[in-house]
Amino acid sequence: MKRYSHLATRLSALLLFGVLACADIGRAQTHPRRSSIGEGTPHRLLFVGNSFFYWNYGINAYVERMARSTDAFAGQPFRGILVAIGGAGLDWHDVDSYFRPQVGSYRVGRTGFEPDKFDKPFDAVILQDCSQCPVHPQLKPTFHASVRKHAATIRAHGAVPVLFMTWAYADKPEMTAQLATEYTKAGNDNDVLVVPVGLAFARSLAERPDVALYWVDKEHPSIAGTYLAAATVYASIYGRSPLGIPVTSNILDPAVVTYLQKVAWETVNDYYKR
């Protein structure tokens, strides 16, 4: 009986953590002015960030599989490319250099050499800062300056900038509201769409604490965490529900996948107040 009592207490605490986190989010964040990426449907995405992006084989691969498995992209070329530096802040990246013609111009794999079929490097660039940079006393100004600089560079190359709101550490739920505030402010200041991944994590933890979103370090994402992040990116950029997108891996339980798809879609609609 003691073991079951302990389990019930732990689950209750986790649920309370989720509720409080959501309450803090509502008080702290400002409303995003931009709720869509604008005209057009991006077929070529560049993800710029750090290990939060490349963990679990790369978030770009998850988003690409989602897009390729839907009717909206049937028969059309689609590409998700990742440039990541472990532990990097946005100021570490030379985004202008990523628009060189060589970047992403081909693939080499089991099927051999596959040249690029696109007429320009990228349609949209998703930017992600280090996990604490947007809220760190010393690095917060650098975060906002980097967003401003990179957004201008991306637009100069004819692409659309997008911000990826990161999640709180598992043992520091107060980071959720802090990160939401800074990412939303940066998005509003630069007219950039913000993908509310951190809010999706908080919602999932509040509703289903049994779905593990973190790796053992309580910072990096588990497979489920990366999938939730990818589904939130898909829902935000394309304005389409990820519900019903087929499971392409046997690592996650199909019921968990459906749940994560639902969380992503609900979070996006709540954040943009659609």
Q: Care to describe what's here?
A:
The protein is an alpha/beta fold and 274 residues long. It has one domain: SGNH hydrolase (Rossmann fold). It is 44% helix and 12% strand. It has eight helices and seven strands; from the N terminus they run αβααββββαβαβααα. It has a five-stranded parallel sheet with strand order 2-1-5-6-7, sandwiched between helices. Strands 3-4 form a two-stranded antiparallel ribbon. The chain is globular.
What's the architecture, going by CATH?
A: 3-Layer(aba) Sandwich
* CATH C-level: Alpha Beta
Listing every helix as H and every strand as E from the N terminus to the C terminus, the arrangement reads HEHHEEEEHEHEHHH
Q: In total, how many beta strands?
A: 7
Helix content: 40-55%
Shape by Cα distribution: globular
N-to-C span: 46 Å
CATH topology: Rossmann fold
- Rounded mean pLDDT is 88
CATH superfamily: SGNH hydrolase
Number of helical segments with 4 or more residues: 8
The figure for the number of domains is 1
